[in-house]
Automatic annotation (TrEMBL):
Transmembrane intervals: none
Pfam families on file: DUF3458, DUF3458_C, Peptidase_M1, Peptidase_M1_N
Protein name, entry field: Aminopeptidase N
Organism per entry: Microbulbifer rhizosphaerae
Domain Peptidase M1 alanyl aminopeptidase C-terminal: 552-874
Keyword match Protease: yes
Keywords: Aminopeptidase, Hydrolase, Metal-binding, Metalloprotease, Protease, Zinc
Domain Aminopeptidase N-like N-terminal stretches: 108-190
Swiss-Prot/TrEMBL cofactor(s): Zn(2+)
NCBIfam families (alphabetical): pepN_proteo (TIGR02414)
SUPFAM superfamilies listed in its UniProt record: Leukotriene A4 hydrolase N-terminal domain, Metalloproteases ('zincins'), catalytic domain
Catalytic activity: Release of an N-terminal amino acid, Xaa-|-Yaa- from a peptide, amide or arylamide. Xaa is preferably Ala, but may be most amino acids including Pro (slow action). When a terminal hydrophobic residue is followed by a prolyl residue, the two may be released as an intact Xaa-Pro dipeptide
Domain Peptidase M1 membrane alanine aminopeptidase: 230-443
Family membership: Belongs to the peptidase M1 family.
Length: 875
């Protein structure tokens, strides 16, 4: 497959001023007619006196029926069908192009373009799916005004597209015809169409300037009672964007549709967001707290795209982080404002440290703004999204809240209606604040996770504390040498009494150090004693900090740091040190013993009434096996598993009494509310329950059984069932699993959860159960949610069983990836990730993983998506 390079970007030769689309929907035989008003792009590069270049249109899996220009059929001699499009000879700088083509939504299992999901027509056009609908310049810098007519049989009473509905009537042959007009020019990737027999929940929102906006959520009738939380979240997001960014909604209607078959979480199509059902539907009986929170954040994310993505869009797909990094930052701040800020930050940083750092250290490592790709769908990554958001957060930290707002105001005003670059975003931030971010731009172009080695000294004679910071960044594919980054390093200094010291005469207790050189020192004066540094507060940059903290110092930070994030982080460092020691002891054949200080520290956290229970739950959670693996130079999976399981068991045993007290205190019959304070209590209660069940003591397992039987909400029910599945004997776990399925078999989202509980079970035999689950009537290989729950759960969230010593876990994944590639290449290419990291594993396990990956390559012809990932990972 061809590689596309950022350096080869050229402005489009032609622009499309208006796009009229006409659909006649039939499952296997949908007719698409398009009428495009086209003109030569004055900004396109052309040699003087050059004849008009050919018009290149993208098109994949289309049957061309006819092509005409200005009302005349174009003869075959004037156009060429290419493997992925059309090249048309052009005679005039302005013309009207009409194309008729046929597509087959029913057989479209890729879930890109127009497809059927449970009998409902829907589209997914980002990044390059519009070319599966009709021939078009399918690139984000071609922005056009769309008018869309949909004609469908009567069993599809709901026919939706972008913008405002301007026509609805019956056709002469008794079908329904609806026309939508979108007044905002947009790239084709924001086009959407939905047709189905859907119910709607309606509400309205009055914007700050007093305009009334109709809000509608569409779903199948059976889910209509599951839309309230999404609607509430939408209204909160609309208000928040007005208050924090001064951004109002711009159309008279905003629609959300839930579909069961969807490759990602949701899609921000203009005025018509399409959501994976799992990311929009919730009720207390069927959804966990985590789902409620995910819905709030994704509804916010897609809504925020209306400005950061739609009104101002990307010039090309290398600029993806322009909209995604910025929008993830916006949704994270929204969630932080709606819930606990510290806990949200801990969750986000945990994801970054586990999965994004692994991406940065793996074969697919790429900068936030990649330089090249074979298949753009492979670059919807944690680096582009999550690290991209951290880059925007660093700009926020450097400029402050007001400066950042000035920058975003200028960015939206300067580029409204345009397709722009990451460079334009940074330039707006600079121009609005009169700062120079030249060096900072390296965050967009250099891949890899920087490492900061920090050391310190105290000059008692002068009362000066000196911090020395050295930065480096490991080589990544195609980038051996890195230049120093501009890193905002937020620090505080703790005195012996545990309080923050003043860092200047104004009494400031936290400073953001501007680290920009390979090695740099920072002096703090006027100190009476050597302080203890609290480094990288709030995780002010996506880096790894190395500082030789002693156990006592970490215990001190855990107790005293005024920065809640760093309190948690001190606990993680402490646990990491203890787990490293256990791994070493295991490898060297010594008896295992958990550091008593760690047990004491966890006890004090558990008994500290001043801490937010959600923070306590986070602080009691050991770093995941994946996080431990990421931090190792070479991964010894067995040692990680043994050490972590031993530590969990030892903690459970030592803290049984305190855990039980805490569990009993929180186990009360409150009516369910998905509000931060209640979520926090449930989180701590269920963390305690999980530890208690680790002991596998019958009386403690009966607590889980009782909670499972009496739970009035899904959070408690699922947590109890997870504990039973992981720790109870079959005669207790199996009936629980069966009764759960019996009760919820009609509910797709709960069945997905049920699949996930089983595929992530740490018990021996899980691989065999996973194979059985794939034969279950509710499993479909064509549904990404089911694939993610069963196969993805096993490969990504079941470190213990996936890494079984015989390598069968890897072979299983390879087999499934090959099968899936024929149906849905995007999902196959994502699913293969766990076995692409084979080089980091020690011994035979690494070899087995390598062989599994090779077997994918040798299985026959791969899609472009899968080929890119596998070939880059075998190098
Ligand atoms: N902007 C949306 C991206 C998306 C997508 C990309 C590739 C394949 C399928 C997809 N579905 C949605 C999601 C978002 O970031 O909001
Ligand atoms: Zn997004």
């Amino acid at each position: 497959p061809r590689t596309v390079y950022l350096k080869d970007y050229r402005a489009p030769d032609y622009l499309v001023d208006s796009t009229r689309l006409h659909f006649e929907l039939q499952p296997q035989d949908t007719l698409v007619k398009s009428r495009l008003q086209i003109r030569r792009n004055p900004a396109a590069e052309s040699a003087p006196g050059e004849t008009l270049p050919p018009l290149l249109l993208d098109g994949v899996d289309l049957e061309l029926l006819s092509l005409s220009i200005d009302g005349e059929l174009v003869p075959a001699s004037r156009y060429r069908e290419l493997p992925e499009g059309l090249s048309i000879h052009v005679q005039n700088p302005e013309f009207v192009l009409e194309i008729h083509n046929r597509i087959n939504p029913r057989d479209n299992t890729s879930l890109e373009g127009l497809y059927l999901s449970n009998g409902m027509y829907c589209t997914q056009c980002e990044a390059e799916g519009f070319r599966k609908i009709t021939y078009y310049p399918d690139r984000p810098d071609v922005m056009s005004r769309f008018t869309t007519t949909i004609v469908a049989p009567r069993q599809y009473p709901v026919l939706l597209s972008n913008g405002n509905q301007i026509e609805r009537r019956a056709t002469e042959d008794g079908r329904l015809l609806v026309t939508w007009e979108d007044p905002f020019a947009k790239p084709a990737y924001l086009f959407a169409l939905v047709a189905g027999e859907l119910q709607t929940v309606e509400d309205s929102f009055t914007t700050a300037s007093g305009r009334e906006v109709k809000l509608q959520i569409f779903t199948e009738a059976k889910n209509i009672r599951k839309c309230d939380h999404a609607m509430r979240s939408l209204k909160k997001a609309m208000r928040w964007d007005e208050e924090v960014y001064g951004r109002e909604y711009d159309l008279d209607i905003f629609m959300v549709v839930a579909v069961d078959h969807f490759n990602m979480g949701a899609m921000e199509n203009k005025g018509l967001n399409i959501f994976n059902s799992a990311c929009v539907l919730a009720s207390p009986e069927t959804a966990t707290d985590a789902t409620f929170q995910r819905i709030e954040s994704i509804v916010g994310h897609e809504y925020f795209h209306n400005w950061s993505g739609n009104r101002v869009t990307c010039r090309d797909w290398f600029q993806l982080s322009l909209k995604e990094g910025f929008t993830v930052f916006r949704d994270a701040e929204f969630s932080a404002d709606m819930n606990s800020r510290a806990v949200k930050r801990i969750e986000d940083v945990s994801l970054l440290r586990t999965a994004q750092f692994a991406e940065d250290g793996g074969p697919m490592a790429h900068p936030v703004r990649p330089d090249s790709y074979m298949e753009i769908s492979n670059f919807y990554t944690l680096t582009v999204y999550e690290k991209g958001a951290e880059v925007v957060r660093m700009i926020h930290t450097l400029l402050g809240t007001e400066g950042f707002r000035k920058g975003s105001d200028l960015y939206f005003q300067r580029h409204d209606g345009c397709a722009v670059t990451c460079e334009d975003f940074v330039a707006a931030m600079e121009d609005a604040n009169g700062v120079d971010l030249t060096q900072f731009r390296r965050w967009y172009s250099q891949a890899g996770t920087p490492v900061l080695e920090v050391s310190d000294a105290f000059d008692a004679a002068h009362g000066t504390y000196i911090l020395t910071v050295r930065q480096s960044c490991p080589a990544t594919p195609g980038q051996n040498k890195k230049l120093p980054f501009h890193i905002p390093l937020a620090v505080g200094l703790l005195g012996a009494d545990g309080r923050d010291l003043s860092l200047d005469p104004q009494g400031t207790t936290q400073k953001v150090l501007q680290v920009s050189e390979t090695e740099q020192t920072f002096n703090f004066t006027g100190l009476k004693e050597k302080p203890l540094p609290s480094l990288l507060r709030g995780f002010s940059a996506p880096v790894k900090v190395r500082y030789g903290y002693s156990t006592e110092q970490l215990l001190f930070l855990m107790r005293n740091d005024s920065d809640e994030f760093n309190r948690w982080d001190a606990g993680q460092r402490l646990a990491f040190m203890a787990l490293e020691q256990l791994q070493k002891d295991y490898r060297e054949g010594r008896d295992l013993q958990l550091q008593p200080q760690l047990v004491d520290a966890y006890r004090s956290v558990l008994q500290n009434p001043e801490l937010d229970p959600a923070l306590v739950a986070e602080m009691l959670t050991l770093p995941s096996a994946q996080t431990l693996a990421e931090q190792c130079e070479r991964i010894d999976a067995e040692a990680i598993i043994v050490a972590r399981e031993f530590a969990r068991g030892a903690l459970a045993e030592a803290l049984k009494g305190e855990l039980l007290d805490c569990y009993r205190r929180l186990d009360c019959d409150k009516p369910y509310r998905p509000e931060a304070a209640d979520i926090a209590e449930r989180s701590l209660k269920n963390t305690c329950l999980a530890y208690l069940c680790v002991t596998e003591e019958p009386e403690l397992l009966t607590l889980a059984q009782a909670q499972f039987e009496n739970a009035a909400n899904m959070t408690d029910s699922a947590a109890a069932l997870a504990s039973l599945v992981n720790h109870a004997a079959d005669d207790m776990a199996q009936p629980a699993l069966e009764s759960f399925y019996e009760r919820w078999q009609q509910d797709t989202q709960v069945v997905e959860l049920w699949f996930g509980l089983q595929s992530t079970s740490a018990r021996r035999g899980t691989l065999e159960s996973v194979r059985e689950l794939m034969q279950h009537p509710a499993f479909e290989l064509t549904n990404p949610n089911k694939v993610r729950a069963v196969i993805g759960g096993f490969a990504n969230r079941n470190f213990i069983q996936f890494h079984r010593a015989d390598g069968r876990g890897f072979e299983f994944l390879a087999e499934q990836v090959v099968a899936l590639d024929k149906l849905n290449p995007q999902i196959a290419a994502r699913l293969v990730t766990p076995i692409t990291r084979w080089k980091k594993y020690t011994g035979e396990l690494g070899e087995k993983m390598h062989r599994a990956l090779q077997s994918v390559m040798e299985s026959g012809r791969l899609s472009r998506d899968l080929y890119e990932v596998v070939s880059k990972s075998l190098v």
